[in-house]
Amino acid sequence: MSNDYQQERLRLGKELRSLQADQVVIAHRIGEIEERLTILNEIDMASQESACHADSCTTGLWPEEAEAIRASDKLVTRESPLEDKYELFIKLFSGRPDVHAMRWRSGEAYSPDCANLWKDAICCKRKDVRGEVKCSECKHRVYAPLDLALFKAHINTTDEGRKTVLGAYPLNAEDNCKFIVADFDGKLKKTKTNKARATEEVDEDASQRAKTIAAAFRTTCLDAGVPISVEISRSGKGYHVWLFFSDWVPGGKARRLFTALWTKTMDESPGLDFSVYDRFIPCQDTVSNSGLDGGIGNLVALPFQGEVGRFGFTVFLDAEFRPYHDQWE
Fold first, then answer.
1. What pTM, to 2 d.p., does this model score?
2. DSSP 8-state assignment for residue 143
3. Which residues pair with residue 112 across a beta bridge?
């Protein structure tokens, strides 16, 4: 009789341990489901707010503002006057209004443009005053807003003087934005190691992976009712996925939306290589404590840059990832 009890105790102990293991698995699964439901709710709420005309040049705008643009004018095409193109450009790519970024002629870096740049006895970059202070600490630094002349230089396809390449800072002083961008980098470098030394070389396959991931993210967004637009980068190897808002929205809210969509993309395409994902721009929810260039945050290079646009770069792409025939229409 005693032996029977011992056997039953062992059996019940084994069942208990099995149930405890199942409990851990079930609790983990419940947590995953709750996380996914939160993501789906975020997407549903945001997609309702950003519903719009996805096939027009007003992609990403709310319906009422899209109608306002048409009523004001002006169907903008590549034959339209420069002023009409500038008006539409500012509506769509409106970042912080009091400052814009300029790409350095000597490399790939950008910095805030200054109204006192290269002015005699003022600009810290000049030889007569160089070394006194950094640009970010210069008392003569005056941010310069984007204007029609700069826009004209940016889209200019001829080689006149310095090649103007503009960037925008998405977050304004109140930490709101009118667009968000997902950046997929097709210029990844891989480390090649030998006995002598490790070297870095461009990963030639990264561009195709960036295209594949951008396409997957595009599909997730459109399936969720979030109307995005895809731009090919300046290098021609990466892609930017843009979402435009009709009004200023909190940067944190825009980032949560893209984070939810990105998580959904990864969940639905587990076999893809997501290493080409670089970042969302804006990169932070707030600039009040960022310390980046005095609290203006990260920048994004603006599309339609004339120098490389003539080769099919910094332009928007259709569903087949081919440049639209008329980028302005």
1. 0.75
2. B
3. 101
